[in-house]
Description:
The complex is a heterodimer. Chain A is about 30% helix and about 15% strand. Chain A is α/β, with parallel strands linked by helices. Chain A has two domains: about 10-125, Ubiquitin-like (UB roll) (Roll), CATH 3.10.20.30; about 130-140 and about 155-255, Alpha-helical ferredoxin (Fumarate Reductase Iron-sulfur Protein, Chain B, domain 2). Chain A has a six-stranded mixed β-sheet with strand order 1-3-2-6-4-5, covered by helices on one side. In chain A, α5 (about 190-205) runs antiparallel to α6 and α5 (about 190-205) crosses α8 (about 245-255). Chain B has a single domain (about 15-125), classed as Up-down Bundle (3 helical TM bundles of succinate and fumarate reductases), CATH 1.20.1300.10. The interface between A and B is large, with 44 and 28 residues.
Amino acid sequence: MVQINLPQNSKINKGKYFKDKTGSKNIRKVNVYRWDPSTSENPRIDTYEVDMDNCPSKVLDILNKIKNEIDPTLAYRRSCAHGVCGSCAMNMGGKNGLACTKSHSEIKGDIDIYPLPHLKVKKDLIGDLSGLYKQYQSIEPWLKNNSKSKTTEIHQSQEDRAKLDGAYECIMCACCSTSCPSYWWNGDKYLGPAVLLQAYRWIMDSRDEDRKERLQKVADELKLYRCHTILNCTSACPKGLNPAKAIAEIKKMLATT
Amino acid sequence: MENNPLSPHIQIYNWHISSLVSISHRITGIINFFTITMSCLWVSLLLLGETNYEIVKLFLNSFFGKFILIGVIWSFSFQILSEIRHFFMDLGYGFEIKITKITGLIVIIGSFPLTIFFYILGRYLV
């Protein structure tokens, strides 16, 4: 259901203010969403003054700087720092993206950092993605080939392989799904752009023999057709992929076959 | 996980042209639904005699009535353009970020001259 307002326990309070101690002249204010599961307090926004003269170019560098030099209690996910693992997906400056590939110079004014939208928060910037992973599992993202006798490799032409471009690069960071208003209101039933892009990837795979069943499975009023081409997903994708187009292609396949 | 807070969503997410067109498409759709129903009722009033019809006509010619009328025409103009955009999307075209921005802007900006066009068409030509 559409619930515009946040629940009572999710209302955001004003938090602490960390004044700059380095005496730098090049300061930026960074507002970070904080929530500590060990207390019963509501979430809060902590403000940090960060010395930008000694900070590399990405938003993740700011977070690392805060954690290392200002406030070690800050919690966030990160791993590769090169836009490959998808761990540091979060909402920066009002848009989802990977903290490790987003330059802070692209954000004007104070830098607002929130966890991915409309998720249960585990701590600070860490959202709970288990619902999305369950949906990912539900589309059975593995190759299905029913011939048991065949033991040789399954060939794929270059043209057929090219059909997977723009779908296989997905790193499942959930930037797209959590940017989608349809997914906010119907996230329990609607599969969301990330999972549907993967569904498309397996439907399109020439080596897969389960194409018809796969199509039938997603052909559902709630699972697929909750996409109303809002296109937040495509504009959020840090890998430059186009989940909205993939969803449209699935709809087209269902309409024409 | 029951007591964990929900991260903010619509409160913090930036509006894009595409999302703005999408929500406006929905709102104008609802307005148009009621407009069509109302105009059907208005035509039905003819059956009950001229005076009932005249009352609505008088209202639509007042300042407030004209305001509503033009608003409704805009709602239709927007819906028409947005529907054309959706038509191409259903065919699988126009999903690139740059193109969605351009077509979205055409829908938003184009709805105003189209409103004027329909108004003049209805007022003086038909």
